[in-house]
Write a structure and sequence with these properties.
about 550 residues, alpha+beta, 2 domains, ten-stranded mixed beta sheet, 10 helices, globular
């Protein structure tokens, strides 16, 4: 036998194990590098998409703002609303109470912290609405009964910005183009952002519960007066009893196909369905109508005439979408492609075209996906203040506006950070209460006090005017705030804490707090907004971003 040469020896078991371990470490490390790179690229792509979405939104709003009709419009409405919601499913899973988004873990230990509805963060969201009329060249966003688009255009429109109501999965699977707003018997309906499911049902808010799934919409209703009483808009379809709007209000506010209902269709199409976008009226005609319904005292007492007239145009006819005027939201349906056309029956060419037309129409209002906050605040000359920059009381509230020089309301801040003069001015914004300086209090004066340095927080005009010196009489106070139709609290508050506080708790039986401002024929002697501040937050439903991206845009009104 010949001894083995040392050069011919193989690897020992230990050497093989070490080699395999090194290879595994390299594989895991390379995988981590690729995973981090993929997440970074995904987050970067989402950030770029968010910027593109905001630029698109900014351009759209800027164009609409240039055409706003403010002084002789039927109304100009801002609705501030707060909605608690989890950011996404993982956020809900990690919460101390998966049924209550307002409860968060206390970083110092102890019982969970509970946010009030005045907080603005990743658990308490703003879902404001903005509604106005405009004059410009507008083209229809939807088609007629069997068409996707229409060449019809006009120079007047009603525009609505806000979060859309979305269908749940049952409604999607049983979607029927002839009933684009009303769920069929096998479905459960459409849900507002963050809306809790009906406890009596088994299906819930499948697509509009988590904030990162919400969709900001822009609905445009073209206003075209009917050329004749018998054949509105030159309708080519034969007229019948189902297509003729009944009464002046239906004629003005029922969307047209032309004719919102057709022979053989079980349900007429309400305005909030986003199916048709032509109303047979004009800005002047609807203003006359609103002025008429605003006049009788009995209607003011029963409805709060302005709120009633404004909401009535938005949606609330005999086919009320929710039974509450406070939740007027247009429908959007980005999921039509998931539904089965006309159920299980064979689809003819006309039926397929009808399905396509209805789906395209309800997708038209979609503006920004993943919009977790839409905040609308206004500024103007609503106060009379001490405007002498050398005075130690510079910025003091003297009474209701407008200011003699039309000066936009401001907050006086000492230029040296302690006391003034000298002073700097900061625009005072009004709206649903919002904490701007992050001190946990929302008040006219810092730290929730009743005097001293003024706070930059956003408040209703009512809560600011209560600090006028000399104090206002009850009549003067009411006259100055007449355009404020609804408040988030029954009585003025010196402080809205962002934890707990007077705005109520989530899951309570009380109605959601709203701040509603409506300017119109009954407020012609009062100041109107000169500036709008819109704050937008855009998030990623896939959770590739740590936080939603916030953007702010200030609009100068005509």
């Amino acid at each position: 036998m010949f001894p083995c040469s040392p050069a011919a020896r193989g690897f020992t078991l230990i050497e093989l194990m070490i080699s395999i371990a090194i290879a595994l470490i390299l594989i895991v490390g390379i995988n981590q590098v690729f995973s981090i790179a993929q997440k970074t690229a995904g987050a970067g792509n989402q950030l770029s998409q968010d910027v593109r979405d905001f630029r698109m939104f900014q351009g759209r709003v800027a164009q609409d703002a240039r055409s706003i009709v403010l002084n002789d419009a039927p109304f100009f409405i801002i609705v501030g609303e707060s909605q608690p919601a989890f950011r996404n499913k993982s956020d809900q899973t990690a919460a101390p109470d998966p049924k209550d988004p307002t409860k968060v873990n206390n970083p110092f230990g102890g019982a969970p912290i509970r946010y009030s509805l005045a907080a603005v963060n990743d658990r308490v969201h703003r879902i404001d609405r903005l509604m106005f009329f405009a004059r410009d060249l507008f083209t229809r966003q939807t088609g007629n009964y069997l068409t996707i688009s229409s060449a019809t255009s006009g120079y007047e429109a009603y525009l609505w910005y806000g979060h859309l109501r979305l269908p749940n999965n049952n409604t999607i699977s049983s979607y029927h183009p002839d009933a684009p707003a009303l769920p069929l018997p096998s479905s459960l309906g459409w849900y507002s952002p963050g809306q809790l499911p009906d406890p009596s049902t088994q299906n819930g808010n499948d697509n509009n519960y988590f904030a990162s799934d919400w969709i900001l919409g822009r609905q445009q209703m073209l206003l075209i007066p009917p050329p004749g009483p018998l054949d509105p808009m030159g309708r080519s379809e034969p007229a019948n009893s189902n297509t003729q709007p009944q009464g002046i209000l239906s004629m003005m506010t029922t969307p047209q196909s032309y004719g919102s209902a057709r022979q053989g269709i079980p349900h007429p199409v309400p305005i909030y369905a986003s199916r048709y976008d032509v109303a047979l009226t004009s800005i002047d005609a609807y203003r006359q109508f609103v002025s008429f319904v605003s006049a009788p005292q009995w209607m003011k007492n029963q409805f709060g005439a302005w709120e009633w007239a404004g909401w009535r145009f938005l949606a609330f006819d005999s086919l009320n979408q929710s039974g509450s005027r406070s939740d007027a939201r247009f429908y959007g349906n980005p999921f039509v492609q998931r539904a089965k056309p006309m159920g299980t029956t064979p689809v003819s060419a006309n039926q397929a075209q009808l399905y396509l037309a209805a789906g395209a129409a309800q997708a038209a209002p979609i503006l920004v996906r993943g919009c977790t906050h839409f905040i609308v605040e206004y500024a103007g000359s609503f106060l009379k203040q001490d405007t002498n920059p050398t005075s130690t009381t510079f910025g003091k509230i003297l009474g209701p506006g407008p200011d003699d020089k039309g000066t936009i309301d401001f907050i006086a801040e000492p230029a040296n950070g302690a006391s003034g003069p000298p002073w700097t001015r900061r625009t005072r914004w009004y709206g649903f209460p919002r904490d701007i300086d992050g001190d946990g209090h929302i008040s006219v004066f810092k730290n929730g006090g009743s005097s001293g340095a003024q706070s930059p927080d956003v408040l209703p005009l009512r809560d600011v005017l209560r600090f006028a010196n000399p104090p206002l009489t009850a009549l003067a106070f009411r006259q100055a705030t007449q355009f404020e139709r609804q408040y988030p609290t029954q009585n003025p508050s010196a402080d809205y804490p962002t934890q707990g506080g007077p705005l109520g708790n989530f899951n309570s039986n009380s109605p959601d707090p709203l701040y509603v401002c409506a300017w119109g024929p009954d407020t012609t002697t009062l100041p109107r907004p000169k500036l709008l501040r819109i704050t937008l937050a855009i998030d990623d439903p896939a959770a590739r971003l740590n936080d939603a991206q916030m953007y702010e845009y200030v609009i100068e009104l005509p």
